[in-house]
Amino acid sequence: SSQPASGGSSSPSAHSDEYNHPTIVSLPVQVSDVERHFIVQVVQYRKTLMCMALIDLFFCLLNMMSFSIYIFGLVLILFGYYGALTYNIRCSQAYICYNATGFFMKMMLLLLLISSPASYAKNFQNSTLDNDPQPTDRPHESSPDIPFYTYLFVICDTLITGWITRIGCQFTYALKYLENNSLVYERFRSGQYQVIQNQPWQRGYIW
Q1: Are 60 and 70 in contact (CB under 8 A)?
Q2: Nearest 5°: phi and psi at 8?
Q3: Alpha carbon of 40 to those of 81, 174, 205: distances in Å?
Q4: Judging by beta carbons within 10 Å of its beta carbon (0-12, 13-18, 19+), is residue 206 exposed, middle or buried?
Q5: Which value, to the nearest 10 degrees, does the dihedral of the CA atoms of residues 184, 192, 78, 110 take?
Q6: What is the structure's pLDDT at 29?
Q7: Burial bucket for residue 136 (CB in 10 Å: 0-12, 13-18, 19+)
Q8: Can you list the residues of the chain whose pLDDT is less than 50?
Q9: DSSP-assigned states of every residue in 175-198
Q10: pLDDT tens for residues 93-137?
Q11: Is 94 in contact with 83 (CB distance < 8 Å)?
């Protein structure tokens, strides 16, 4: 008599053990309209901050080739990317401080560029009149000519830095609200927010 083959069909209990693995499912959380507003803010601003941090990182690496001091900025930018990625308030605040400091310094540079040609021309005119009774006999000297694109670049850079600072403040404010008033914050930190995470990025949250 023939013996049954060793590779025969398995028993029903074997199928049951194979497919009935335990699955951890997050229970839904009921949120108010205010909480929902801050949730959407957090998700949208997070994506914007991550994009801006990557762009900042690229230019910071270029500057590091000439000035090693930019390594401190590199660290703060990485804090910003990590803070947005993991919904970490402290790391995000470090990135805000970096951008707020940069915004202040760029504003000072812009004011210096605007005031320097006028003050130089005024000082030059006064020194010419004091030292030479006949300024028309001297060769004409002009004030330094700063290219227009320099002003344009500094203005755009200053506005973008201020905009990133504002986005960071909105992001951390919304996170603080959720941390203090909602159970959703812990789900952000643990990654248990699949439905929210799949929401497409909206251009309405770039400001």
Answers
A1: yes
A2: -70, 180
A3: 19, 9, 9
A4: middle
A5: -40
A6: 60
A7: exposed
A8: 1-8, 15-16, 121, 124, 129, 135-137, 139-143, 194-198, 206-207
A9: HHHHHHH-THHHHHHHT--HHHHT
A10: 999 999 999 999 999 988 888 887 555 545 545 555 455 555 444
A11: yes
User: How far is the C-alpha of 91 from the C-alpha of 49, rounded, in Å?
Assistant: 12
Contacts of 155 (CB under 8 A, 6+ apart): 110
Distance CA 151, CA 148 (A): 5
If you search the block for the tokens 């930190």, which residue do you land on? 189
The tokens of 125 are what? 């005119």
- List the structure tokens of 115: 């005031």
Give dist(CA 51, CA 72) in Å, integer: 20
Radius of gyration (C-alpha) of the chain in whole angstroms: 30
